[in-house]
Amino acid sequence: MHPSAEDQILDVGVSDVINDGANALERSYPHQEKITACGLGAGIEFKAAFPLCRYVQIEPNTRLPFADNSFDVATSNAVLEHVGSHDNQMLFVKELCRVARRVFITVPNKFFPVEHHTALPLLHYHSGAFRVACRITGKSEWAQEENLILMTRKRLWRLASPIARHAAVGHTGLMLGPLSSNLYLALD
Description:
alpha/beta; 5 helices; globular; 7 strands; 188 residues
């Protein structure tokens, strides 16, 4: 998205758990004062860790509390797969497009050999095997659509198709061709 130092950025789905794997934008972007971060919780630890960012608590699967085109860029990292249904995913993508001129979404790739949330290798390629493995390992919540929808390039293209913007879908993260760790959807 190549944001400038003046661009206003919205980051939807930040974590209140502060560690090296969370809130990558806030940890690396040199203009934190230009970031508005949204999360489901009160954001107490987030605000303490990133005091220059504005934090807004949001409700799941509802309109974002911002006017149209309030931001130059909206981004979301590893959130879309958790919103609960195709309709909720569509609402999420449309809302990001409503409030920002450019949108960049990343999700774990279903075809990466190790499923990101459970660390189970290969079993997520078959939904029945994945459900059984999740049950055996005490991770049953990850086999429920309301908690996790495994994402593919095709699924991202389906979400982008009704939106009247230029879209690009590709691989990111640990680059292994079609088995890369993550996927992105960019809309401008």
